[in-house]
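Q: Could you predict the 3D structure of Methyltransferase domain-containing protein?
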Amino acid sequence: MSATPEYNPRQFWKSRDFHNSTRLYLQHWLVQKTLGYVLHPSIPQDRPLRVADLGCGNGAWIIEASHELPSSAELTGFDIAAHNFPAPEFLPANVKFSVLDVMTGECPSDLTGTFDIVHIRFFNGIVLNNEAQPLIATVTRLLKPGGWLQWEEMDPSTLATITPRPDINTTYCQNLMGLILNIGTMVGTKFDWLKSFENELDTFNNVQVKHVPLPPAYHKAWTENYLILCEEIAERMPPAKKAAPNVPITREGYLDMFEKVLEEVKNGVALNSKDLIAVLARY
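A: Sure. Here are the predicted structure tokens for Methyltransferase domain-containing protein:
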């Protein structure tokens, strides 16, 4: 048996169920409340648009975007698996979904250069070893010349505990954050690329990177969104230390710590990244 459980981000996100889908709705709502928009207000909407949403999940963003755009717009959500896609019979007439692995750097020839807007959100757990270029290559293949990229991210390396009062204990929340980042390092999730969007997007024009602070009123909601994801990580933990000796904690130990984290959160502790990174660029 391998010393550490292998992390394949494509397989991991393929397997997410309705719990994760529910979290994605909460996450979408939080991003919208934090930014104040669904589609960036600088993007012109005065002509028919073709819009792609990469890693769309359950389509929370693209369905809402369809309500803001004229009915002449055509919107397509792409994801590596279809299990979270809504039934097509329930969708607006101008919205559809399709399976596509956007981390290959390729796209079908019939999609090349056909989109006016590409939207991306939260690939920080999918990009390994700071290698964001395959994803960006897919974006450039999809976009028309002069097309727009709208991208939202968070930098997990900025995770911190926030307390309403200095007397509240944060020990287990801090331990959880350290553990998650440690495991991330072991499996190859690195976040340097999130600090250099201008360099990563060097084939784009007018790259705008804005760091938007998280409103304190939504600290609790952002924390709960994060905790749902942390709870899912438990299934990746070995049930016995001897099964994977280099893994820093067993499943039982992780769940025990997680219960103590929940107690601290009940006392008002928040677990949040520093800010939301909003990127806008033109190809």
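Q: Anything worth pointing out?
A: The chain has one domain: 9-282.
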